[in-house]
Design brief:
single chain; 190 residues; mainly alpha; Rna Polymerase Sigma Factor, Chain: A; Arc Repressor Mutant, subunit A; 10 helices; globular
Length: 190
């Protein structure tokens, strides 16, 4: 949850993003370049979480950025750009991970299909603390890790996360709760 004083900055950044998307959709190449550059690093981190391999993540990122640039004109509402871009990146990351899994004979993506059964924590979790314990987050199951990163690092709402990952909102919430519980366990024990 954002502090009240951050809300106005958040709304302004949302409006700026919407305007940038609209300019890119109207053919402004500079706006498209800035849009892709601004989202390159967060999308890479997201895809890296899915693929768990830097080289595969880089390839998935490149494919995602190309798809985003090519399909930007089909985005009906520029306000949904972030969730739309994450959906494309998620699909590319999963597609590339599955291809790699077949080659290696691994079945890691099964964790993405199973929702965690848990309730949301009673108290909010500090985003700064999440950034300080990135190694512990990396040790969580991929399904929880992705939701935690999107919610706390990318500041996406549950609705945006559900849209991006193509899962129900309740599943996004339960994965977050399960991930936070596991994270608390590792922090208490270690």
């Amino acid at each position: 949850m954002r502090p009240p004083e951050a809300e106005s900055g958040y709304a302004a950044s949302r409006a700026g993003l919407t305007l940038l998307v609209a300019r890119a959709q109207s053919g402004d190449r500079g706006a498209l370049d800035r849009l892709l550059r601004d989202h390159q690093a967060p999308l890479y981190r997201h895809v890296r979480t899915i693929t768990r391999d830097a080289d595969i993540a880089f390839d998935a990122l490149q494919n995602s950025l190309l798809l985003i640039a090519r399909r930007l004109g089909s985005l009906r509402d520029p306000r949904w750009f972030k969730a739309w871009a994450y959906r494309i990146a998620t699909r590319e990351g999963v597609r590339m991970a599955k291809r790699e899994t077949r080659l290696r004979g691994l079945q890691e993506e099964a964790a993405l299909a199973e929702p965690a059964e848990a309730l949301l924590p009673e108290e909010p979790f500090d985003a700064r603390l999440m950034r300080d314990c990135a190694d512990r987050v990396a040790g969580l199951p991929p399904a929880c890790q992705i939701v935690l990163r999107l919610h706390y690092f990318e500041e996406m709402s549950f609705v945006e996360i559900a849209e991006a990952l193509e899962i129900p909102v309740g599943t996004a919430k339960s994965r977050l709760a399960y991930g936070l519980a596991r994270l608390r366990e590792t922090m208490v024990s270690g």
